[in-house]
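Quick one, T. Sequence first:
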Amino acid sequence: MVKDWSGNKNSVFTTLGASNHTDKKREVNDFYATDSIAIDKLKAKFGIPHNVWEPCCGHGNLSERLKELGHFVYSSDIINRGYGDETKDFFAYDKAPAALGEDFCILTNPPYKFACEVVKHSLNLLPTGCYSIMFLKTTFLEGKRRYEELFSKTPPKYVFQYISRVLCAKNGEFDYIMRMHGGSAVSYAMYVFQKGYSGVSIIDWI
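Structure tokens:
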């Protein structure tokens, strides 16, 4: 698999939401946690499969909320932040963890600068008909390279646009983000890709 990046291996796939944010001073490993409300809003509109793989779990914000809602979740990350079942680069997987079985989805907030590669790799790892669910900036929809490499071949089945802004916090410091910066300046959506789907994308609001 060819990745569109420059740097060492450890920079390839660091935890939640790399380059999804606007902080002037970036966290060294691009660790930006996602408010778990993102899961609640998605689940109210879309049936998230029972078995979920969260491959950039960070401190477990999304994983823990999914568990609270009754899902089985396998959590992994390239960086060990004291949470998860395995510490491993997502791109190093050539098959999904056996614990997930044959019917599962991959759900995460990937490093934005590698998001196209993450989506493509996730689809390679999924059984036909299963979902890759990605929390990404709304502007992920634009871009000639993404269209040619991804959307023209594998369009999302659904794009769920968040009506209200969802917080992503540097080092998981949500209170600081609200107190010092007044919330998020970035618009996000949840992109739902289905392995084998090549039809029209449906846009809805959550």
